[in-house]
User: Fold this.
Amino acid sequence: MAAFAIMRCKKLSSTGNLAASLQHAYRERDTPNADPQRTPSNDHWLAKSTDEAMGKIRNLLPEKRRKDAVLAVEYLLTASPEWWNSASESDQAKFFDQAYKWLADKYGSDRIVTATIHRDETSPHMTAFVVPLTQDGRLSAKEFIGNKTQMTKDQTTFAASVANLGLVRGIEGSRATHQRVKSHYTAIQQAENGLPFITESELKPQKVKGDTFAEKLFGAVETTAGIVNRLNEKIANHVKPIAEKASVSAQNQKLAKDLSDTLTINQKRLKSLQEPLNGLSNDQIELVMKFAREIQASNRKKHLEKTSKRTL
Assistant:
């Protein structure tokens, strides 16, 4: 599967938004997706704090500018998670060097205020802040970022700048959107925690619509095969959509396999639970279930008696 070069940017038009983004970059504010134990491995280039970076920005900003002018452009430069999992330390270092050079070629190195390499989140990435200052001293994000056509060109040239590392450009015009990391892993965790569990009551025959006139009038009861089909359908309906959805991305392929294995295990477990009931009538099944409940009640009573003796 191809690994993609990823470039995103955001315009920052107020000092408040700019300071907040810088504080996030320098971990001077709460960052839920970051691992505090890995934060010391982050690298800050050109400026070591929000105050220092803001001072550099103020020195670059022209005195005369529009009230709604874009003060800085924030860039996120990274690659597909699977690339980071297999890339050598040398190739990872080359990625950041070449990503920085791409920004310097586009804006001029003196317009880059700070660039941080974050290694404390899910995938390593570079966050850079650039003042969109033209050669004649004007603030003009439009000249650098422009319209959709310019952004498409930037995506292409950025991918080309790191192509030697085995990265390619994403599909041009794709409507795929970035999913927040936290939401992504929350969804996976919910899927894992929500796997269906077969209860004792579900093993009992249930009333179903019959085929004969009498059955339609008074109702019918499931056969053993009917119970198996109903519970298999319950498991399949819950697991299969998650497995299919998970298999879309490389990150979720393991989850897809785990869910598929869970389906197989549950089906085997269900089959083993049903085998002792094969060939029994519905009344006989009910007697077996009643006997099983009596044994369970007796076991619970014995366990309570042993526990109470130990506490005396």
